[in-house]
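Quick start: read one record
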Amino acid sequence: MSGTGTSDGPDGPHGGDGARAGGSPSPAAVPGAWQPRPETTADRPAVRRIHLAAFEAPGEADLVEALRRDPAAWLPGLSWVADAPDFTPAAHALLTRCQIDEAPAVALAPCAVLPAYQRCGAGDAVIRALLAAARAAGERTAIVLGHPSYYPRFGFVPAVPRFGILPPQPWPEAAFMALSLDGSPPPRGTVRYAGAFGTG
């Protein structure tokens, strides 16, 4: 499914904190260089540019806009960018409403970093800040379909064996992960994503 996470991982075309062109470290790759913050209306063109640059096709950029138009999916304050040292958005991450059976949860997807700033900590910074914002907003459970060597750094664990949370489609068990945001046991059941994800 397009857009339910960085399913090719941070080093692949799904736009995580992946390889920087040329392989050389960026001056931005220092602690505190990134400034995560909630997306503003003025950031929307930059957010689209980030996804268009990070992915080979416009699917994720279009997905963000479709989710933004869906009042049942869009959660104000849970679309974040990370500014580069020049104060321009370099990374974006989004949480939208999903359901685990009838219990509300949030889905992390899509996430993207401008190619010039990949492997520099931008993806980590914006995802950590976004998850902290979700905790502060009272969200209990986050879901991601993503690279199993990347998302555990944020606390995600395989959802099926750990929590009994099932994907809507037969995805690889190791890549379908969940995170308890408040420390309580997540609800069991099958995840239902917003319609824009096209999971049925």
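The helical segments are 44-54, 59-68, 122-136, 159-163.
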